[in-house]
Amino acid sequence: MMMSASDWIAPAVALAALPLIAVALRFQRGRTVSPLRRTTRALIVQETIALDPRRRVHLVACAGKRVVLLTGGPQDLVIGWLSEP
Fold first, then answer.
1. Three-state SS across 1-60?
2. DSSP 74
3. What is the per-residue burial (b if ≥16 Cβ within 10 Å, else e) of 48-77?
4. What span, in angstroms and rounded, lies between the C-alpha atoms of 21 and 72?
5. How many Å apart are CA 34 and CA 39, to the nearest integer?
6. For the chain (length 85 residues), average pLDDT per consecutive 10?
């Protein structure tokens, strides 16, 4: 029995749609919130500036506040907490 062109259209469209569905699922998977993963980060390094080959100044957001840190010297220091703008 010979198949007509209309018999091939549905399987061809389904086959062509599979890669598009796979790509959409991949993007969706990246946005899904897993109950095992934290949705917000408590500690974020916003900026880092190198003072010399060893020492760096970091602007870090921690629990909604910002702190300036100096690292790489004989000891790490908290320079200070920044007030709200």
1. CCCCHHHHHHHHHHHHHHHHHHHHHHHHHHHCCCCCCCCCCCEEEEEEEECCCCCEEEEE
2. S
3. eeeeeeeebbbbbbeeeebbebeeeeeeee
4. 49
5. 8
6. 69 75 67 54 86 92 87 90 76
Eight-class DSSP state of 64: T
> Rounded to the nearest 5°, which phi and psi values hold at 22?
-60, -40
| Structural tokens at position 22 | 């796979």
Rg (Cα) of the chain, in Å, rounded?
27
CB 46 within 8 A of CB 66: yes
- How far, in Å, CA of 73 to CA of 58, rounded? 13
Tokens 């007509």 correspond to 4
Distance (Å, whole) CA 20 – CA 38: 29
Which run of H or E residues covers position 69?
strand 65-71
